[in-house]
Specification:
Length: about 110
């Protein structure tokens, strides 16, 4: 298993996801999405796994602008420019991915 957790340092669900894998002694790579962001390839892989709408953090300041963008390509560009608009944690295991705290899905990865 090659787990990557993309999260924000002050995100409670990100901390819960890290704790979930630590308790099960599963090694993971933690990536600060605000500092590093997502590459285009990582973003595409996650989008293909969960869908574009699942990636949008509707509670983030500035997210209302995404509602007015008509094309998915414009939304994707905006999310890549501003990772604060992306919902966290994003947990990747190869081509599989989840957004948010999803221990039921992670159990099936073990």
């Amino acid at each position: 298993m090659n787990i990557q957790i993309f999260g924000k340092t002050k995100c409670f669900d990100t901390k819960k996801a890290e704790r979930y894998f630590k308790e099960r002694r599963v090694k993971f790579q933690r990536i600060d999405i605000l500092r590093v962001g997502l590459s285009v390839g990582e973003f595409t892989s996650v989008r293909n796994a969960v869908g574009l709408e699942a990636l949008i953090d509707e509670n983030a300041s500035g997210a209302e602008v995404l509602k007015y963008l008509a094309y998915d390509a414009a939304k994707e560009e905006k999310l890549l420019e501003n990772p604060a608009l992306i919902k966290t944690p994003i947990v990747r295991n190869g081509k599989k991915a989840t957004v948010g705290f999803c221990p039921d899905v992670w159990k099936t990865w073990e």
